[in-house]
Amino acid sequence: MTLFKGAPAAPAGKSPSVLAGRPARAWAGFAAAAVALFALAPLALSDFRLGLLAKYLCTAMVAVGICLAWGRGGLLTLGQGVFFGLGGYAMAMHLKIADAGPGNLPDFMQLYGTASELPWWWRPFGNPLVALAATVLLPMAVAAVLGSFIFRRRVKGAYFAILSQALAAAFAIWLIGQQATTGGTNGLTDIQGFFGYDLDDPVNQRMVYFVIAAVLLLLIALVRQLIHSRYGELLVAVRDSEERVRFLGYDPANVKLVAYVVAAGTAGLAGALFVPAVGIISPAMIGIVPSIEFVIGAAVGGRASLAGAVLGAIGVAWAKTALSEEFPAAWTYFQGLLFIVALAFLPGGLVSLAGIVRRRRAAATALPSGGAA
Amino acid sequence: MSSQPEGVHLSSESYRSSGFRPQRRRVIAGAAALAAVVALTACGAKTDAAGGSSDQAAKADTSGDTVRVGLLNSLSGTMAISEVTVRDSLRLAIEEINASGGVLGKQIKPVSEDGASDWPTFAEKAAKLIKEDRVAATFGCWTSASRKAVKPVFEKNKSLLFYPVQYEGLEESPYIFYTGATTNQQIVPALDYLKSRGEKSIYLVGSDYVFPRTANKIIKAYAKANGMKVLGEDYAPLGSTEFSTIANKVKASKADAVFNTLNGDSNVAFFKEYKSAGLTARSMPVVSVSIAEEEVKSIGSQYLAGQLTAWNYYQTTPGAANTKFVKAYKAKYGQDKPTSDPMEAAYTSVYLWKAMVEKAKSFDPEKVKAASDGITFDAPEGTVTVDGASQHIHKTARIGRIGTDGLIEQVWDSGEPIEPDPFLKGYDWASGLS
What we know:
The structure holds two protein chains of two kinds. Chain A has helices at residues 23-44, 47-72, 80-100, 107-112, 128-152, 158-177, 179-182, 202-227, 230-240, 242-247, 252-278, 288-301, 306-326, 331-345, 352-372; strands at residues 193-194, 197-198. Chain A is mainly α.
C-alpha cells in the first residue's frame, strides 16, 4: 500500500532516523508509479479515459500540497481552490490570448466586454514565459502574503480553515462578477491550442497527459524531499506541539508559511495543467465545494502519507466518474458515504489499513507468548 | 513541461535544511531524470505527428437495430430540480417515437449522464457520450455555462447537441441546435409588451451569471433607444436567499416595473421580500423570464399570483398537440406534474431531430445539419420551423400572467412565430452589443 515511507505514527524516539527508512522501497514505489503512468496507462486506456486520468492527476498534484500543509503541518487548507484557480486562470488567460491572435480580443470579451482592447492586467499574460512563471509564482506570492499575516497573528485550527474557505468563496464571487474580463460563471472556455500545439489532436492530448504525469512525479519527489528533511521534522513538530517548538527557539510562523506556500505552488501548477487537459477553467473549480473535494481525496487516502494522499485523490476522482456513469442520479450519496466511512472508521485514511492489519496480526501472535510469561 | 523549473528551487530549499545521505539524493534525482526523459521522448514523438491534424471525430455507432442518443442533464446539484423535468420530457418523446416505429426503423436507446450542475463535469460527460457511447445526437444542458463548456467538445468531435432552454443569444455553433428562445423571441417581446402598457421605467434584478448580465445589457440598450429609464441594476449570487436590501432598493426606486432574471431558489426569497416590502403585482409588476410552471409550484403561487412571465409555451397553450403532450406527460409522471417551456422545447427537439434524420436518410451529423433547414413540427407551442442558417427555430413569443392555481394564462402573444435573430442584427439599437 505504501509506495513511499509515510510513517504518520512513527515512534517519537526514533524521529531523526525516519529519514533512513527504506530508500529501496521508495525507489521501487516510484519506479512502479512511473511505469504505471508512462507505460501501462497509455497502453490500457482509450484517449478519452487517458484524458480523464490526466484530470485526476491534476487533483493529485493539489493533494501533494495538501499532504504537506495539512497532513504534515496540520494546516487544514480548505481554500486550495484559490491557488488552483490562480494557476488555472494564469494559464487560460495566456492560451485565450494566444488563440485570439495578435490584436484580437478573446471571444468572450467580444461578446460580453465593453472595452475594445485587453485590460491592463491581462496584458502581461500575453507573454508565454510570464504566464508560465505566473502559474506557480502568483499563487505562491499570494500565499506568502496571506500566510505571513495569518501565521504571524497566530490564527490556527478551525479559524485558519474558515478563513481559507472564505477566501475561496470571495475569489469565486469576484470572478463571477467580472464577466466582461473573466468570463463570469462561464469561466474561460473553448481553449484551442497549447503553446502552438492543437489541443484537438488526440496525439497532443497524450502529450499533455505525459507532461502532467511527469510534473506530478516531480512534485512528489520534491515534496518527499521536503517531508524527509530536517524542515519536515520541524513541520511535524509544529503540527504536534507548536508551543514547544516556539520555546525551542524556532518561529512556527515561518515553518507553517513554507508549507502553505509550497502547497499553493503545487495547486497553482495543478490548475495550470488542468486547463489544457480539460479545456476549461471556471469559478466552479475554485469555490468552496471544489476546495473541499480536494481535501476529501487526501483525507480518504491518508493525508499524512504522500502515497495515501495522491492515491486517495486519484481514487476519489475516479470513483466520482465511475459512480456517476453507473448511477447518474444517486452517485453523490455514494461519494458522501465514502467520505464518512473513511473518516469515521479510518481517520488515517485507507493507507493506514495496512498498518492496522499488521498491528492486529502482531498483537495476535504476541498475545500467547505474553500470556505464557 | 516548461513549468518544471519553477518547482526546482524547492529542492534547493530542502537541501539546505536537510542532512541528506547522498544515495537518497541520487535515487530521487534518478527518478526525476527518468520522468523528465520519458516526458521529453513523449513530447518529441508528438511534434512530428502534430502536423497531421486529427480526422478522428468519433463516429456515431448506428450499426445495430438501435441508435443511441445522449441525455445530458444535471441530476444532482442546484440545477437538478429544473433539469430533471427536461430529462423526463426527453424520455417521453423518445418513448413515443419508439412506440411509433423509431427513427429510420431503429429504436432510440437513451444514455443518461449527470452533469451535476458543474461545468467541467458537463464537458467530461459530453465527451463520454460521444466517444464511449457513440451517440448519434445529444439532448440537454440548461445553464449557459454548461453549454459554453460542452460547445467545444461537440464542435471538436463533430457531434450534435440539441439545447432546449431560452438563452442570452449571441451564439451560433455549427453543432448546436437551439430549440429554446433566443433574445428576440423572449426578452425583446417582453420589453415591447411593457412599452405597449406604457411602463416608462424599469428596475433590473438578476442572478449573477452570464444570462442575466447579458440580458440586462440588451435590456439597457433597448431602454435607451425606446425612452425607458433603467432605475437600477442588482445582481445576487446564484443560490442567494438574502433579498431585503434589493427589495427595499426596488421599492425606493418607484420604478414602473421590475425585470427579473433571477434563477432557481433565489426567486423564492426575492418574492417573499418583495411582498413584505408592500409591493404588489398591481403597483409594480415583475416580468420574469426564468419562472415557469415548475418554479411557480416550488415558489408558491400565493407569492406570484398576478405577476408576469415571458416564454413561448405555457401548459395552458391551446391546441391539440399540447393537449396530447400534457396528457401523456401527466399519465407518465403524475397528475400533479406541470409542463413548462423548457420541457416542451426539449420534447420538441427530439421530434425535430427525428424529422431531420428522416429527411437526410442518415444519422450523419453533417447530413442532418444539411437537411435541417425548413423542417417543421407541430409542437405543443404551435408549429415550429427550423432556420437552417442559425440552427435556431421560429417561435411565438407569449406573455403570461401567473394565476392563483399555479398555472400561467397567456395575456399577449406575438401573433406569429418570430424569426430567430441570435445576434439581434435586425435591431438598430442593438448594433453596439456584439
